[in-house]
């Protein structure tokens, strides 16, 4: 539970990072090798230990970057500042593919929250981009109501992660609260209140910036070697 709570705030300097803990254990195992071990064996294991201690990146920084940037650009479209073209390509590549890869990398760290969130929202962006392209090319056309129900399903999914985010830290809980509100506004916009699309646009811009705040927290903690941007305490304690 402690690991999950700190998953989004860990840095490469954090000794609680699983990869580093595992590496330390293996170094100890290597040191316990039999006394008659040959020099080449020791050299080989020293190199292996060095490789195991190599600094690992945090996939969350890419996931948060793709989520935030694609969300921000979509809202530029929703409030009428730009067309839909850039949203399609960002949705397929940065918001979709890159975020999904980050989610799959979270899997190897044992972080189920990041694994689920980044992989799922990566799939969201890819499916949304394909849905919009399908409408444009008259393939499996989705009505406004169809898209509304698509968003309702994602609203329910987000509500589950929103509860989990409150156990991690305040910045993530704030981000998911804003995201959930944005989905609800978009739901209402697709079922009789179209004027709420613009309201959701501005609200989700703030959501995107909140996600980038957490990204900046992780990057700055890495490059400065200390916590520069605080993320606050969990809203729900054990």
Jot down its keywords:
238 residues; mainly alpha; 0% strand; globular
Provide an overview of this structure.
This protein is mostly helical. It is built from nine helices and no strands. It has helices spanning 2-6, 18-31, 39-52, 60-78, 85-109, 112-136, 144-165, 170-190, 196-224. Helix 4 packs antiparallel against helix 5 (85-109) and helix 7 (144-165) runs antiparallel to helix 8 (170-190). The longest helix has 29 residues, at 196-224. The model is unreliable at 1-39 (pLDDT under 50).
Give a short summary of the structure.
The chain is mainly alpha-helical and 238 residues long. It has 9 helices and no strands.
Q: Please give the count of helices.
A: 9
Q: In percent terms, what proportion of residues is strand?
A: under 5%
Alpha carbon gyration radius: 21 Å
The H/E string reads HHHHHHHHH
- Give the N-to-C terminal Cα separation: 9 Å
The helix content, as a percent range, equals over 70%
Major pleated sheet: none
What class do helices, strands and sheet pairing give?
Answer: mainly alpha
Nearest-integer average pLDDT: 85
Q: How many beta-strand elements?
A: 0
**Bulk shape:** globular
Low-confidence stretches: 1-39
